[in-house]
Design a protein that fits this description.
6-stranded mixed beta sheet; Immunoglobulin-like; elongated; mainly beta
């Protein structure tokens, strides 16, 4: 004997458990004219709600309700007997059955008639995080949720990162931290967006600080006088000024193209042997930050 289960009853019956704790019905006898769902686009939606999904199928006649995990759609529009658009309500992370009630009953709950809620993840900027304009690793603190207890769980969350709309490599650090590889940039800041299984979080602004990226000569006697080519990165780098070797100013001349300039600097004399930092001010008026690449050494002879 076949038993007919409808949306909510099917879930209550617990015939098939889906990811996230939702359930789908066991095989049941279909009614002629019963509405059926063949596709849901997109199938990933935000826990905050507000996404518009397109539902395709058949027998969408006299539709009286559209629900996601038992919650009414914020709104819906029956475009035709085979298509409905609906605005998703807020929900909890995981799978949620989508059920349409129409003239001839409710749609059955199956693995293909669910949406997957995902929590939008943001980036904590309270500590004013900065990235080197020359590129390199940067650790981000993620807000809004967790990345999983370990790298295996992280892989299941399908997290990626956009840096100025370009996808960058992201790796797991711990439950609330990601490490990304920042590309070199010529702007003063960049937009970073965490994507959680197709669901974007709120973009965060990260400051790009100017840095020295290379020195052709890295040491000199205290007398100075040798020339070294300083390569640097940052906003308006071609207009960089105020090059310093430690506390001593240096005379520098720009060379190369506008897109990739460098500076030939005459190393100033120094009073004491030891390491100093080569620094400058970018054309945007921002002082460069220390990196190991900016280290220059004075020797006694």
């Amino acid at each position: 004997m076949s038993v007919l289960l409808r949306g909510a009853a099917a879930v209550a019956a617990g015939a098939l458990v889906l990811a996230g704790g939702a359930a789908a019905a066991a095989p049941v006898t279909a009614l002629a004219g019963r509405p059926t769902i063949s596709g849901i686009t997109p199938s990933r939606v935000s826990t905050a709600g507000g996404n518009t999904v397109t539902i395709t199928g058949k027998n969408f006649a006299e539709v009286s309700s559209v629900t996601f995990g038992g919650a009414d759609a914020t709104s819906y529009n029956v475009v035709s007997s085979t298509k409905i658009t609906a605005v998703v309500p807020a929900g909890t992370s995981g799978a949620a059955p989508l059920v349409i009630t129409a003239a001839e009953g409710e749609t059955l709950v199956t693995k293909t008639t669910v949406v997957n809620y995902r929590t939008p993840l943001g980036v904590d900027t309270s500590g004013n995080p900065v990235a080197k304009a020359g590129g390199g690793p940067l650790v981000l603190t993620v807000t809004g949720g967790t990345l999983g207890a370990n790298s295996k769980e992280f892989a299941k969350e399908i997290v990626s990162v956009l840096f100025n709309k370009n996808k960058v490599t992201a790796s797991y650090v711990d439950e609330t931290h990601l490490k990304i590889t920042v590309p070199a940039g010529i702007a003063e800041s960049a937009q970073v967006t965490v994507i959680h299984d197709q669901i974007p979080g709120e973009p965060a602004t990260i400051t790009l600080v100017p840095v020295v990226t290379g020195l052709s000569v890295k040491s000199s006697t205290l007398a100075g006088g040798v020339k070294t080519v300083v390569k640097a990165a940052g906003a308006n780098i071609g207009e960089a000024t105020d090059f310093m070797f430690g506390e001593n100013p240096a005379d520098c001349v720009k060379q190369g193209s506008a897109a990739s300039p460098s500076f030939v600097c005459t190393v100033p004399a120094a009073d004491e042997a030891g390491p100093v930092v080569v620094s400058f001010t970018s054309g945007a008026g921002t002082a460069s930050r220390f990196t190991s690449t900016a280290t220059f050494s004075y020797t006694d002879n």
